[in-house]
Design brief:
The chain is an alpha/beta fold. The protein has helices at residues 47-59, 76-85, 107-112, 129-132, 148-160, 186-191, 197-203, 220-235, 244-252, 258-272, 296-299, 302-320, 325-332, 336-345, 350-370; strands spanning 34-35, 66-69, 94-98, 113-114, 126-127, 137-141, 162-164, 171-173, 177-182, 206-209, 241-242, 277-278. The chain has 3 domains: 11-211, Rossmann fold; 213-287, Helicase, Ruva Protein, domain 3 (Orthogonal Bundle), CATH 1.10.8; 292-371, Arc Repressor Mutant, subunit A, CATH 1.10.10. The protein is elongated.
Amino acid sequence: MAQAAVAIKNPRLFEVSQRSSRLEAENTYPKEELRPEQPSGIVGESEAIRRVLADIESVAPTPSTVLLLGETGTGKELLASAVHHLSPRRAGPFVTVNCAAISPSLIESELFGHEKGAFTGALQRRAGRFELAQGGTLFLDEIGELPLDAQAKLLRVVQEREIERIGGNKTIPIDVRIICATNRNLEGEVVEKRFRADLFYRLSVFPIHVPPLRERRGDIPLLVDAFVRALAMQRGHVPSGVDETALALLCSYQWPGNIRELHNALERATILARGRVIRPEDLPDLNVPSDAGDSPAAEGGLKQRVDSFERSLIEDALRNSGGNQSEAARQLRVSRATLSYKMKAHGLGCSATAACFSRRRLVVTSFRRTS
């Protein structure tokens, strides 16, 4: 299972390409780096992820370069794959390069290839990633780690749409869509002279900001459910769910490692759990979120924290559903009766609260139509 997921509820992102291209090259790369794959399920319903998906659907059909900006572990490669598989290039290869994982002395050979005898150890001609991505998409992950000299050569490729292998004297035209990603502030890197300004402007034609998990807490229950189900299918003996207290703790945590950290925590919990559901004692130590330091929930014990976050989850679900309790219950994966009981327990009057959220939705809709 992919270690990062970003959203479900968008049928186009589940589009499966029935055709697969077969690359013939002089060298072989790991399958996870060279593949015409379909995107995994993207999980979430928050407004933050909906904006990202809308941007992806807008830019995917175009040939424009995309720059994905976001913290580590937010699922940028999954989103890059979604762009590829919603584009006219979906039948072509999707080639990934982690610029941070390749030695600076080898990065040019990896990207552009080399001829036999070009340098010591070049025993045969080798195609670079640009050639392998012909007709498809090249995903340059951690682009901010690219050395300055390699940046200059990449700029030429982006401008001229042709490459030269190291040691070669022949230009090779390329037909590749470029998607880049970074967790760095590239504008700040430009100011500090660590990233070329001209390359930055060439790559940031269509920037997409990927939200961290703490900004889309309402998606955590969906992600937890998806991960636990997938782990259960893989192993056949792990718990099939998470109890309410454990879920509230998961929702209250800051997740500095984002979705990847959440997945790792759940995988560990499924190993430690002895019952049919994951309980708080099965989870790793989760600190109180730093942005809740002055809240009553942070000052109280476990029950106060659980109640506070349970209430916030219910409020988010009601807000997202426009006050429709049946839809809110579906989002929260509980019955309508359970939601009604929880609303009363937290002082969220059923009829008044639903009407309030419904009015908010109407106001927002009216504003959008008139603006």
